[in-house]
Amino acid sequence: xxxxxxxxWVRDRTMDGYIMPEPGxxxxxxxxxxxxxxxxxxxxxxxWCSSFFYNDLTGSCSLRTLVVKTxxxxxxxxxxxxxxxxxxxxDVRMGFIYYPQANFCFRIDKGPSTSWIDARSRCQDNGxxxxxxxxxxxxxxxxxxxxxxxxxxxxxxxxxxxxxxEWDTPWPDGKPHFIWVNDKPIDASTLPWGxxxxxxxxxxxxxxxxxxxxxxxxxxxxxxxxxxxxxEKLE
Length: 235
Prior knowledge:
Keywords: Disulfide bond. The protein is an alpha+beta fold and 235 residues long. It folds into two domains: 2-92, Hepatocyte Growth Factor, CATH 3.50.4; 106-233, Roll (Mannose-Binding Protein A, Chain A), CATH 3.10.100.10. It is 14% helix and 32% strand. It contains three helices and 17 strands. Strands 9, 10, 11, 12, 13, 14, 15, 16 and 17 form a nine-stranded mixed beta sheet that branches. A six-stranded antiparallel beta sheet has the order 1-2-8-5-6-4, covered by helices on one side. Strand 5 (51-55) and strand 6 (60-64) form a beta hairpin. The protein starts with a strand and ends with a strand.
């Protein structure tokens, strides 16, 4: 690992010998540097950068917006190694993904599917909570990471819910009302819902999930359904 510019840069050896093309609509940069440390400094100098590929043979430094979690779609190039940002409190070697541009640390659970209540308990038992994608930047980084990682499961709970006192009732005034588990309100009109969502089917859909079946959009869901979930760790 490298300790550069107030961050720890951790080598992900599962990506050794590969380079992943960045989606064309996201920031990336190709340049030459004299060392991995210089490449890390360059990454830190761009507010959008969270990781980089480095070629020891050529000095090629390839900066990335997203954290890469799969070799699916990657190009084999023997000399490349891959580093991603981390901090002491967000250890990416423990399965976390860290985005310094949003100070955003989360982990997509790989354990058994479960209900929303049990999912939250499992997050909290490990000093976390279900993810609150409470800024446009956090939501975009979360959704794009899931999109670019085919191995993740199809449906995942977030920390978006109806206020507990409104569960299993019709929407007040017929309008959706959600909050994040950190108590920040949600403007439902700004979220990327799937077609016809949210709809509070049978007045029991109290939880917000990310649904890859619906084109990686959001959906309201019965909180007793067993699906995967995403935990967020705070500094």
